[in-house]
Specification:
Layout: E1 7-9, H1 14-23, E2 27-30, H2 36-41, E3 49-52, E4 62-65, E5 68-72, H3 77-82, H4 84-89, H5 91-97, H6 103-108, H7 111-117, H8 124-131, E6 134-138, E7 143-147, H9 148-151, E8 152-154, E9 157-158, E10 165-172, E11 177-183, E12 190-201, E13 204-213, E14 220-221, H10 223-229, H11 236-243, H12 261-283
Parallel strand pairs: 1-3, 2-3
Antiparallel strand pairs: 4-5, 5-10, 6-7, 6-10, 8-9, 11-12, 12-13, 13-14
Helix pairs in contact: 10-11, 11-12
Amino acid sequence: MIPAPFEYYRPKNTAEALKLLQKVKGARLLAGGHSLLPAMKLRLSSPGALVDIARIKELSGIKSVKGGLQIGAMTTHAAIGASDVVRKICPVLAETAGNIGDLQVRNRGTIGGSIAHADPAADYPTLMLLLGARFTVTGPKKKREIKADDFFVDLFTTALKRGEILTSIYVPAESAAVYLKHRHPASSFAVVGVAAAIAMKNGKCDRVAVAIGGATAVPVRAGAVEQALSGKEPTSANLDRAAAAVAQAIKSPLSDSYASGEFRTHLATVMARRALTQVAAKAR
């Protein structure tokens, strides 16, 4: 449980961190460290150097902006969960952050670290996809913005290029949304996570969004579920029919010693029904 030798750097700002990524061979970014450090101890990852960006002040903070929230990538789960601004503008984000891991994880882990790591069992990617979040990425020469739809590419793989840093996240306002997950008993990661949002008009579902995580390599939108409920009243029968369409969104489900792909698909269907029921009640 001892990592291979490595160099350690703690830059004072983003510009310095970017220079280190270009200059130091084999350098990896360190945020909260809850995923990278265990991998290093098991020798599953052996970077030649760590560039610790967790203490860069310009990468932390939460502020209200037009249409939503701007959150620094190094903002901790605990800060997001406790933020009155987040609770007012996008309460589901605060609720989700408050249910990540345990107290130690929430106090150290960061939203940017979790998103950039792209663990299929993490909570933020599924929610970011549902909300239509946008990620600001800073490279050595320029910044670019990536939509959540385009950011998650594969297992532990994102659209980030070598030498780039995820610096901030824009999260649109959302008043009626829920995120539910079936926790793994050991890690509290999501075996399956389901996020849902509904907007009502004249008693019918005017806008429906459903995202599913944990069941596949990257989170997916359940388009068939959304179409099945859009324009309809959220009656019990309609919710049943919508949830039954979940399997159409889950291609090549993940399977491991804890849960088979078939079980994950079934679990996603059950949880989608619960999420839709809860969010329909909120939307009313």
